[in-house]
Write a structure and sequence with these properties.
By secondary structure, the chain is an alpha+beta fold. Helix content is 19%, strand content 28%. It is built from two helices and eight strands; from the N terminus they run αβββββββαβ. A hairpin with a 4-residue loop joins β2 and β3.
């Protein structure tokens, strides 16, 4: 879809400028376009140098506390919602769902992420392949990917000399 690729490119351009100005990785970044349906690939590893998507995978969004079918976003504790904005991907640890990476919100829309324990992690409910039109599972606010996809993301994160940026947008 040309429109989605244009949005992705615009976000990558913005992240490139931000990364260079603030000491983040300027070779690649991660982006999650929450406007794309959850059964489609919407988490992207973007190669800034080549100006291209290196890989894509599924990512769950927060379920929220209401019974709405519409995706909701919030930065509030216990909202169970995804928070939009740029994140610094921090150190890894072994959590409730195995390997996880701490996330530090860099915008007013997600600056409570660390306190909310919003992290990048995997869960077996997220499949490796697209399921659209069937949506995938939801999280409690964390960007949650398939275990095999997190293994690949871990390589990017661990091989980077500078912190990697993740932008979650709608």
């Amino acid at each position: 879809n040309k429109k989605l690729l244009l949005r992705l490119k615009q976000k990558a351009d913005d992240l490139t400028i931000y990364a260079a100005a603030h000491g983040y990785n300027t070779e690649y970044c991660f982006m999650a376009d929450m406007r794309i349906e959850s059964g489609k690939n919407r988490f992207f590893v973007y190669n800034i140098k080549k100006d291209s998507v290196e890989m894509a995978g599924l990512v769950a969004h927060g379920c929220g506390r209401t019974n709405s079918e519409e995706i909701q976003f919030s930065n509030t504790a216990n909202s169970l919602c995804t928070s939009l904005g740029k994140y610094k991907i921090g150190g890894s640890y072994m959590g409730k769902f195995g390997l996880a990476f701490k996330l530090y919100g860099l915008d007013t829309t997600n600056d409570n992420a660390f306190n909310r324990a919003v992290v990048l992690h995997a869960h077996s409910c997220v499949p490796n392949e697209e399921t659209y039109p069937i949506p995938i599972c939801q999280s409690w606010g964390c960007p949650t990917v398939a275990p095999a996809f997190l293994t690949v993301l871990k390589t990017y994160i661990n091989n980077s000399e500078k912190p990697v940026l993740l932008d979650v947008y709608y």
